[in-house]
Amino acid sequence: AKLFSKMKVLFGLVTLLLLCNTVMSYHKFAEPQFKDSGDVFEYVTTANHQIYILFIYDPKWAANEVQHPLKAKYDLEKSDLLAVIGKYGKDVHFSEINIRSGDFTQLLQELGINSSDLDSYPVAAVIDDGHGVWIQGPREYHRIKQIIDQFVADPSTHWY
What we know:
Order of helices and strands: HHEHEHEEH
Strand order of the largest sheet: 2-1-3-4
Distance between the termini: 64 Å
Radius of gyration: 19 Å
Shape: globular
Number of strands: 4
Low-confidence stretches: 20-29
Helix content: 40-55%
Structural class: alpha+beta
Number of helices: 5
């Protein structure tokens, strides 16, 4: 009976650990829903030395258009980016911004991005305490990794 009781406790602990792991995984990639530029600015300027990755894109494809060239680039770039930032844990926060889902004109202006820049590839902005850089192009995520590594090593030495 004691063995059965200890096994129940062990099983309960394992279940609790798995549940906590699932919740933490969900939290890490849970994206805030931004309505406009103000929501984004409020999110990334908290001065908490967290690193924010904004994946900004213009979905010029229809919802059922899975073979659209820009959709393929979006899928590949997002997959590569998530693979890179997944290694940093909860200090790096990922958010997607579909510029057609709200008024993000001011955000694009502040970042120095012309909306036509999004005609070829999505843009990834790496931000710490409201400052950062944006990167665009095919499979440029080694550069994002370098920026994240710099921000993690010493957040006070922004080199943008």
